[in-house]
Amino acid sequence: MLRTFRQHQIRRTELLDGPWDFVQDPLNAGIQEQWYERFPHSSQSLYVPSCWNNELGMYEYEGVAWYRKKVQIQAAQHVRLIFHAVLGHSDVYLDGRHLGYHYGGFTPFEFIVPSLAAGEHELVVRTDSTLDRLTIPTEQVDWFHYGGIIRPCELQYLPDLYIEQLKIDYALHGADADVSVHVQIRSFLQVQQSTRLTLSEGGHELHSEEVRIEAG
């Protein structure tokens, strides 16, 4: 699941956990029939995060299944969509547009969507838990390979300038430590922008400087 502590205190975040529309695709017909644009009416409700093998009649199901969630955006803004784990293959669609593909059952992945319009949006995820000789693990394993969106899905709202990555490292020298901080800032603006970057700890300012962020 998510960490037991909040990773950020300022950025507005919405968890998309809860019931999602869900439908099995044992014949793998969803892409050809464009389910990412016309989700089947025969869908059921399945809770995210969970594995579908906990559901009645699906204990041994291995293969393709689709999820759908309606998301309301109050005002046009940039968003960061994070999936903390989806078992097997996953393709993510937003309003029928393919955002990207990911493979790996226990690693998070994300998509940045600039200037998402206000209103209702349809988020669709195609998942595939099929194992074969090219997957990790391969088709010959001594445990059962589950399927589904098994960890939370998170929506973050981003300003025009935001911290994309923060890394703190150190080297010990006896009782002393050399600490280095790497901050990566991203801009959605189409013009160069200057901003003040300040590092503080426990109410004490450690460093402050004016930084220039290139357009885009």
The CATH class label of the largest domain is Mainly Beta
Supply the CATH architecture of the largest domain: Sandwich
Largest sheet: 6 strands, antiparallel
Distance between the termini: 33 Å
Q: Given the structure, what is the number of helices?
A: 0
Structure in words:
The protein is mainly β and 216 residues long. The protein folds into 2 domains: 13-158, Jelly Rolls (Sandwich), CATH 2.60.120; 161-213, no CATH class. The chain has strands at residues 13-15, 18-24, 44-48, 64-73, 77-83, 89-94, 97-103, 109-116, 119-128, 153-158, 161-173, 176-187, 193-201, 204-213. It has a 6-stranded antiparallel sheet with strand order 3-2-4-9-6-7, with no helix packed on it. A 4-stranded antiparallel sheet has the order 1-10-5-8, with no helix packed on it. The protein has a two-stranded antiparallel ribbon with strand order 11-12.
At a glance:
With 216 residues, this protein is an all-beta fold. It has strands at 13-15, 18-24, 44-48, 64-73, 77-83, 89-94, 97-103, 109-116, 119-128, 153-158, 161-173, 176-187, 193-201, 204-213.
SSE topology:
Blueprint: E1 13-15, E2 18-24, E3 44-48, E4 64-73, E5 77-83, E6 89-94, E7 97-103, E8 109-116, E9 119-128, E10 153-158, E11 161-173, E12 176-187, E13 193-201, E14 204-213
Antiparallel strand pairs: 1-10, 2-3, 2-4, 4-9, 5-8, 5-10, 6-7, 6-9, 11-12, 13-14
